[in-house]
Amino acid sequence: MNASPTPMPGRPVRGSTTGRSVMAALDLFGRRWTLRIIWELGSEPLGFRLLQRRCDGMSSSVLRQRLTELQEARLAEVLRDGSYTLTPLGHDAREALGPVIEWSRRWAAELADAPPTAAEGAGDGQRNRF
Amino acid sequence: MNASPTPMPGRPVRGSTTGRSVMAALDLFGRRWTLRIIWELGSEPLGFRLLQRRCDGMSSSVLRQRLTELQEARLAEVLRDGSYTLTPLGHDAREALGPVIEWSRRWAAELADAPPTAAEGAGDGQRNRF
DNA sequence: TGGAGTGCTTCGGAATTCGAAGCACTCATC
DNA sequence: GATGAGTGCTTCGAATTCCGAAGCACTCCA
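The joint structure predicted for all components is written out below.
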């Protein structure tokens, strides 16, 4: 498998020596596809290939990696029939994600009428404001 | 600069053809350090170098990239004095992250007494359950 | 006139992600 | 009982992303 161990609370995480649980969570969630997988898995148990399709055909190798991480972190588990689900803890996590989803709607709304025109951080005018 | 454009609601996102705002948000937040930056920036405005230190010395190139993305997404902005803050929208986002932080505590607690022993998804027993 | 500190860029190497291909297997259907 | 379709999962080379040290231009203070 690849490198970087599954972030867990209590011990140092990638790029952090503190080991605070928040940072561990932020690291876990801050990996490509992790949030998405939790989201998709939240509504119903899914088999590997179906889950992959739900995630816009993400690469199987990474999906496998993420699923392993989520299992190690006790957010997901495999059912008898081989499909994946969220554990109670995993469902909690997904619920915790609820406000983020709500926020994204406001975000979309806000960007809708706000002028996306401005030279938004592109190679804009003032370079050094010293 | 690097590739992959800043995810924005309304148009297709990396690995998604739907363009639903939720997916855009999940993509934006699912980039390394993004959540962390929002988190650190939430408490007070920070200059580039200080922010970098707060983020466990993350690489400056990526920090620059993330800050640009966050500005484009209207979550962050630069103050007169050159320091970075969250916009109101950005603060909303951070608040939306609150439950995730709470959850991480429960997560830590749960993993504390749960047996971290089991062969958790490692090359465990049954390979193909067909 | 020096440091010391800042925002930010460059760039080569390391790590992660992608995606197509394939393996082993099950479950119909023929 | 061969065939085809579907499944979970691996492998592996290439593309992308990330890292981190170094450096540039500049400001502020002594």
